[in-house]
Design goal:
12 strands; five-stranded antiparallel sheet; 5 helices; elongated
Amino acid sequence: MTRKRQNPDLVLRLQGLNVPDGTLGGEDLIQLAKIIKALGEASPDLAGGYLVSLTNGSSRPGVAFPTRGNDELPGMHPRETSLLGIFQNGGYTKEDGWKVPKGVREGLCHWSQKKVTVSVSIAKTEGKAYYYRFTPQKVKQFSENIAEKPIRKLIQGKLRALDGADSEFELHFDHQKLICPFPSGSRPTGLYFEKYVEVVVFVKSRPTQGPWRAIRTESIRLLPEAPHLEFGSAVEGMVPPSVRLPGGFQLAHFFNGPTPEDIEALCQALSRDDE
């Protein structure tokens, strides 16, 4: 259903022999609804989108998104920025793959299987509208490399190498190195350097080339130091270790060699006449 007349933020144009004006079926409209819902899940600025026009039948629908408070701030165009962030270059990069939301992907794949090209037009505050064509060939190519979704992981390791701007750090663990941004709003200090920490990060799989970087750091906390052994008074006849070892010890560390009394007792035992 459409609402009151409003200029669309996004226009989809379906082109192909199978979509003469006004002939989109029910399944096509379901895919359109999925795309609008997926955009709202991808960005809060695109939540609540609705149809405002069905130019040329149903083959050129226009979609608008509700105006929110931050739209009124000078120089702020959140709906435009969010849409451009999703559809810029088709949402595809060689490094990451196809990054458009899953619902958008499924809709485009639905039409590409019917040999339909979907053109996306995004209204801009200044200049001409942004335009991109999802041909069936491009959709097939993009679908072969879907961007990996970051997963949430808890990692314990040693924090090293704060950068000059104190915005990133290296986390060393299991002979691996992960470069992490500090959590939003935190101001790291030297207290963290060379300390064992526990971090919660969103990461993708380790790349085969180049540094491994976390997408986002959710939290970071210092771990307690390894326990140090404290010894009471030395037991008679036992030589205490000269260096206390944090985190554990071996029995041999308690004996640096025989005492004079040990040597004298051994000599007396060896010099005794056999009875």
